[in-house]
């Protein structure tokens, strides 16, 4: 009967050693580098290989990192392995540390053997919650410029704030909102984004933008001046759908950006015009009425006299009796607005 050359047990597994002694000398897992996992509790990114990256679930992140750190025995055919982290209850916050244990269950077939050997290992991972550099700047009130909103609707302010909050993953944050005369100041952490959102506001709401910069500090390492920027957005006084009276003719505002796209209600002709060149006499408000007649020509009820009258213009849409329509009353005439 063969004896284990190390412990004397009446059993030999491989190389003159019993199973226990052999596995102690030749484990399935030969190396596991300790893991210290840094996670930003603000933006929920983790630090690895010199950069901060996004992740979904902490459990999946730990599994992925553990899998990359484990080194199995080259002489063994690994048939399967499973990683199961046990994460204690915790509350995220500055310098919160949690100890995670990952149970590694691995099976492998040693040379000359048919049945797989199964082993379990408990692998420790320390998770530390901190602030990444980007979020640290956000929390400290750091800003690179101000978006100055002047003479704007609440819709504009809400849009700017909501869009800025979507930029968290880009390291863009609102560090302060300040109500000022005729508007709002929004302090942001990225200069480039301030120009970006101002252009979005211009394209969506129309108006004008003006930018200026002010020397803030100097980067001595790169010998470069660092500026803070102020970008002012002033909303157009016109709105999409407005009816304008220009030199006695009625126009509907079709689109607004840097310029106005307007359509002549009478001719249907489209024109592009700069708002600052407009001398506008305000038209009467848009009113609702109904179609009173369709043959031999279209007539509508005058919204003020309630008489059936023929509109001063026509539109392509086919009308029906009692159909609701929008009109403008100007210079005694009734104009259809589609």
What secondary-structure arrangement, pairings included, does this model have?
Layout: H1 19-25, E1 29-32, E2 35-40, E3 45-48, E4 51-54, H2 58-69, E5 70-72, E6 77-86, E7 96-109, E8 117-130, H3 133-139, E9 145-150, H4 154-165, E10 174-180, E11 183-188, H5 191-205, E12 207-219, E13 224-235, E14 243-246, E15 249-256, E16 260-264, E17 270-273, E18 281-282, E19 286-293, E20 299-301, E21 308-309, E22 324-330, E23 333-337
Parallel strand pairs: 2-8, 9-13
Antiparallel strand pairs: 1-5, 3-4, 6-7, 7-8, 9-11, 10-11, 12-13, 14-15, 14-18, 15-16, 16-17, 19-20, 19-22, 20-21, 22-23
Task: Give your account of this protein's structure.
- With 338 residues, the protein is α+β, with helices and mostly antiparallel strands.
- It folds into 3 domains: 19-131, no CATH class; 141-235, Alpha-Beta Plaits; 285-338.
- The chain is built from 5 helices and 23 strands.
- The chain has a 5-stranded mixed beta sheet, covered by helices on one side. Strands 17-16-15-14-18 form a 5-stranded antiparallel beta sheet.
- A hairpin with a 5-residue loop joins strand 19 and strand 20 (299-301).
- The chain is elongated, with a radius of gyration of 36 Å.
- The termini are far apart.
